[in-house]
Design a protein that fits this description.
By secondary structure, the protein is mainly beta. It contains 1 helix and 5 strands, in the order E-E-E-E-H-E. It is 11% helix and 36% strand. The protein has a 5-stranded antiparallel sheet with strand order 2-3-4-1-5, covered by helices on one side.
Length: 88
């Protein structure tokens, strides 16, 4: 299966919102990382999946609101192989 990278954004200006991202994943979709930018009241999640519809469905399955979903790409991919045995 070809994995593409997508950025999911969630905007929240609610007082006390922690911006947490539920861990989600399916056999076809994987949450890679999530970052909260408190100054901008945004959470950005990087998700790998075959297409935007599958990624959106995986987020919806765990009730994570997606305000924006766009294709993304690695500028500098993580190391793989023997230098980091935790990565494929």
């Amino acid at each position: 299966m070809t994995r593409h990278l997508f950025a999911l954004e969630q905007y929240d200006c609610s007082p006390g919102a922690d911006g947490s991202v539920p861990a989600f994943g399916t056999p076809d979709c994987r949450l890679v990382a999530a970052v909260r930018l408190p100054t901008d009241d945004v959470v950005i999640a990087l998700v790998e999946g075959p297409d935007a519809d599958v990624v959106a469905a995986a987020a919806a399955a765990v009730a994570w609101r997606v305000d924006r979903l766009i294709p993304a790409r690695w500028i500098h991919p993580p190391r793989t192989g023997p230098t980091n045995p935790d990565l494929p």
